[in-house]
Amino acid sequence: MEFKWTYQEQESLLVRTFLKRQGISKKLLAKIKFKGGKILVNGTEQNVLFSLKSHDMVTVVIPDEEPHETLLADDVPLEVVFEDAHVLVVNKPAGIASIPAQYHPRGTMANRVKAYYVAKDYTNQVVHVVTRLDRDTSGLMLFAKHGFAHAKLDQSLQKKQFIKKYQALVSGEVAALEKHGNISLPIGRDLSSLLKRQVIETGQNAETEYWLKKRNQSCALVDVQLHTGRTHQIRVHFSAIGCPLLGDDLYAGAMNLGIERQALHCYSLTFPHPFTGEDLSFELPLAVDMEKVAESI
């Protein structure tokens, strides 16, 4: 895979420094050097200590990735929302884990994406997960189609340039929900469980913003945006204010209102394209099981 840039500054600059500014890590530079890649300046191969002058054309050839033979391919239909040479956005159904675990090597979104890459005969077949969702959360999930794109997207994540929005169905004390509210409560491990988290003074700072869409006496539909990324954050925060998610038996959610999994759906995702910088935005309608309940509110 080739990437090209034009050096625009007047002062000379080492190729190494220039490539670092483009998001190429030391690890990727080593791969370029030792795995068959190239660095060209104005069409001539150079090393990272070459000094660039203004208007020099820098071309980097990144070698193909070696596939992870341990990741099994599951030939199951994949709902692709968007795809180009660098990113893949899919709609994840509820009940499917994002990545395999030691004793569960298949049946995940990563396995499905691997099969998709194989069927398309893509040169790079390594699966790079950028945004994960819990097993029972549905909605938009982002994959990078090669390691350089993954590194660039991770940088954007660290700079908080991603906007993920969810819709949730909650029950309990829904009459107390504000039209627009913020939940700011620290979250830490619940030592009584391997999975569970709880609001606890010694926990990490956690910020959740929500907008009430509609409600009746038993449940409500809310839009949610996370400003931190703690494990189970939405589930823990709404449970802590007396409004656990429908179907969320881990956090005391109602199990008798037509939802058999945590009623959480990632419906909106916005992020900068790793190479053009253009904002990409995607939206999905509510998952079918949640939509049936929401229509009755």
Description:
The protein is α+β, with helices and mostly antiparallel strands and 297 residues long. Helix content is 19%, strand content 30%. It has helices at residues 15-21, 26-34, 109-120, 147-158, 233-240, 288-295; strands at residues 2-6, 13-14, 38-41, 44-45, 51-52, 57-61, 80-83, 87-92, 128-129, 138-144, 163-171, 180-184, 187-189, 197-199, 207-215, 219-226, 264-272, 279-283. Strands 7, 8, 9, 10, 11, 12, 15, 16, 17 and 18 form a ten-stranded mixed sheet that branches. A four-stranded antiparallel sheet has the order 1-6-3-4, with no helix packed on it. β15 (207-215) and β16 (219-226) form a beta hairpin. The protein starts with a strand and ends with a helix.
Secondary-structure blueprint of this entry?
Layout: E1 2-6, E2 13-14, H1 15-21, H2 26-34, E3 38-41, E4 44-45, E5 51-52, E6 57-61, E7 80-83, E8 87-92, H3 109-120, E9 128-129, E10 138-144, H4 147-158, E11 163-171, E12 180-184, E13 187-189, E14 197-199, E15 207-215, E16 219-226, H5 233-240, E17 264-272, E18 279-283, H6 288-295
Parallel strand pairs: 10-17
Antiparallel strand pairs: 1-6, 2-5, 3-4, 3-6, 7-8, 8-10, 9-10, 11-16, 11-17, 12-15, 13-14, 15-16, 17-18
In short:
The protein has helices at 15-21, 26-34, 109-120, 147-158, 233-240, 288-295, and strands at 2-6, 13-14, 38-41, 44-45, 51-52, 57-61, 80-83, 87-92, 128-129, 138-144, 163-171, 180-184, 187-189, 197-199, 207-215, 219-226, 264-272, 279-283. With 297 residues, the chain is an alpha+beta fold.
Q: Mind describing the biggest β-sheet?
A: 10 strands, mixed
User: Gap between N and C termini, in Å?
Assistant: 51 Å
Outline the low-pLDDT stretches. none
The average pLDDT is 95
Total strands? 18
Q: Estimate what percentage of residues fall within beta strands.
A: 25-35%
The coarse overall form would be: elongated
* Helical coverage, percent range: 10-25%
Cα Rg: 23 Å
Structural class: alpha+beta
**Element-level helix/strand string:** EEHHEEEEEEHEEHEEEEEEHEEH
Number of helices: 6
